[in-house]
UniProtKB/TrEMBL annotation:
Family from the record: Belongs to the methyltransferase superfamily.
Name this protein carries in UniProt: Methyltransferase type 11 domain-containing protein
GO MF: S-adenosylmethionine-dependent methyltransferase activity
Keywords for this protein: Methyltransferase, Transferase
Keyword presence, Membrane: no
Methyltransferase type domain mapped to chain residues: 225-318
Upper taxonomic lineage: Eukaryota, Viridiplantae, Prasinodermophyta, Prasinodermophyceae, Prasinodermales
Amino acid sequence: ELPEVAASASLSPMPAATKDQLVAAWKRGLAAQIKESGALPPGNAKGAPAAWAKPNTGAAAAARRALSSPRTGSSSGDVEAEAVAAWRAAPAAERRRAAKAALEADASDAEAAFALYEAEDELGDGDAAVAALRAALAADPSHAAAARLLAAAEGGADAASAAANDAAGAAEYARQIFDGYATTFDEHLTGTLKYSVPKELALAADAASGGGRSGVDPPRYACIVDAGCGTGLSVEPFAGRADSVIGIDVSSKMLEVARGKGLYSTLLCDDLVSGLATLAQGQCDLIISADTLMYVGRLDGFFEQAERVLASGGVLAFSVESAERATSQGDAGSVALGEDGIGLQPSGRFCHTRGYVEGLAARSGDGDGGAWETAAEPRDVMGRMDGDKPVYATLHVFVRR
Ligand SMILES: C[S@@+](CC[C@H](N)C(=O)[O-])C[C@H]1O[C@@H](n2cnc3c(N)ncnc32)[C@H](O)[C@@H]1O
């Protein structure tokens, strides 16, 4: 049943054992495991998950490795999801010990190196975190998350521009992160991180749609596209107000959660630009993209497809992370801002200046003032927390001419 941990499982048949005897045997196994690895095996931790500053990709693989004693049963039936949640709940110092032990056993284990990076980063040891990223990349040169975070840590406008231009790398990075984050995303975002973007964006989009097709308030839509739909939080404010809702996301695990909510008529597992490219010209009257474009970098492809897919009078509403705020905050020196106005932050996410977005909108169309009219002045909102720091989102809303 657990092929990925079978190599390290032990089997001790206890016919006719009482519950107390089984519990005692489990505790003995657990004690032996802690003695050996210095860490509590995932799935056995108590209490709420620790604050998690950013999603991680190393957790799943590291948790699988750390699962080295037979389990007493899985309450949700999803062993890997439980293992990941328990791994995340373990204190960073414990995860550091476990990741180091895994690296000592196999120095070419990229996921262990990445798990070490996450622990060091959380513990505030920047040099050790960067060294771990280098080790992850040396072990696996195609490790998208390690490459991105190393570029962000090393800084420089060239690194920011190179990352922003690499659309395929950006999509792969997002897929890695969000595939490992899907099961805890909703609770984490709306609880711990105080996520406000969907509500703010829906208000802005509704205001720009001029009362919607039917002129009633709140407006109705014929077809909404949610670009980077994730688990569906961003369309919840539009529930029951659209004839069709199309979600596009690169993470199949996020889409699985979204599918379960029944909010979308169509879900496409694709990069958002290529997903939009499969839709018909003028098919939609609203495109939203909440808390997604900071994973994308350059936005010209997104704008081109939005221009094609939106009907005249349709609304394009999205959030980006504010480059103006990012470069004026405490760690301003560590945000590499390229000349085009796209920055790469220590978090590995991009930020965009207002000028960059407005420039794209102005350059669109075939003359005659461009394809877009600004529906409302860009507005900054406190979009969510990242650890103990607020992340400011700039909301942009345009109407297709
Ligand atoms: C922070 S989540 C936000 C999800 C949702 N919009 C919300 O507000 O809850 C970002 C989502 O964007 C997706 N994403 C990032 N880059 C993408 C890309 N290039 N193409 C498609 N989806 C992408 C991720 O997989 C993730 O589900």
